[in-house]
Structure of 7-dehydrocholesterol reductase:
Amino acid sequence: MNSAVAMEATRRRTQPSPNGKTSKEEEQPAQWGRAWEVDWFSLISVIGLLCFAPFIVFYFVMACDQYQCSISQPLFDLYRGETTLLSIWSRSPSFTWSAAKIYAIWVAFQVFLYMLVPDAVHKFIPGYVGGVQDGARTPAGLINKYEINGLQCWLITHALWIANAHYFHWFSPTIIFDNWIPLMWCANILGYTVSSFAFIKAYLFPTNSEDCKFTGNIFYNYMMGIEFNPRIGKWFDFKLFFNGRPGIVAWTLINLSYMAKQQELYGHVTNSMILVNVLQAIYVLDFFWNEAWYLKTIDICHDHFGWYLGWGDCVWLPYLYTLQGLYLVYHPVQLSNGHALAVLLLGLIGYYIFRSTNHQKDLFRRTEGSCSIWGRKPTYIECLYRSADGGVHRSKLLTTGFWGVARHFNYTGDLMGSLAYCAACGFGHILPYFYIVYMTILLVHRCVRDEHRCSSKYGRDWKRYTDAVPYRLIPGVF
């Protein structure tokens, strides 16, 4: 879930003239990230999300807890008068202090690893980039530094989880599943607390006032964020911590807890559960292996930190991105060998496209075009843009390799992987397919939003780029 910023200013961009000299011409106000003004449709959408998104999460989890993962049965029961909203609510596990203690220990441990254990993994694993790294230039022209230690946090956390399961036995491996709904209330408390703190902080003591963006609409400001990079002290960056920790570190632990519960209930683990664990673990490990690269993505480069990221990373991500494993606890599916192989291939091919596409862009940026992509020298469109501090900067937009196939072909690979997670659950229920529906909406919306931002940022140069690479996701279709 996502947004971004700068000071409002009319941008002047240096354009080459036919005789090789330059002339300055006025452009539209830069629209990096989130909007400066809010129309009625956006306002209604924002209020709708603030009001209903928490209930969407509750609905899916409740459907599994009370209706064996049927998302239509609760609605039919309500329509026929066989149940009421109050009775559904009363049957759901409530907040517990034991869940609060578990969640507080979890978050505190991740803060400890993030803040107080500097990365050492990059010293021992060839090719891994960790330690202190520069982020992308903010709209105000600043470059923040980050402590990249996500892979180390993931390894330490999972090593302790495995050691507990096999040796220490401090807690049951099913602890997450057993407290799933009470933990959801704790996650909501953290999500709203962090979002509200970031909102108040932006008004009273922003980290950098030049990277704040106010619309005059309190609901939009709260949801999409005001500050670009809210921080406490020098190193605790809200955006990097909550985007990567604690939600994504927990993702694979949640799946392991589901696997343990399936083993406890049925005496075996299905191949579908193993597939979900493996494919999603590949995605999570890829995220942390490339955490330094993640500093250059839309989440960090163009989104402000508000409820959209704060609550989304605490609640939406861990609860809805793991629906496949939750479903398989209630409906264990043993796939045929052919079905399992097809799902595995779809997931691996999707991952290959996703990773290769991102690698091509990263290689191109690191070498400033002095590289080979698909055995040829890369082609690109060179663009100029002006940041809010008045500096003129150059960007090169790649038009070769996968980036010549479609402008967001990495998203295409991501969607293939997302479909594989869902297909691993068979075709008995629609609930595990929520993820591919949501990811399609999210990534198509992100395509449109990113291209609107780029069009504003690069002006005519963006038109040259879209002429060279006409499709967004699927060549010949979209």
Residues 49-92 form one domain.
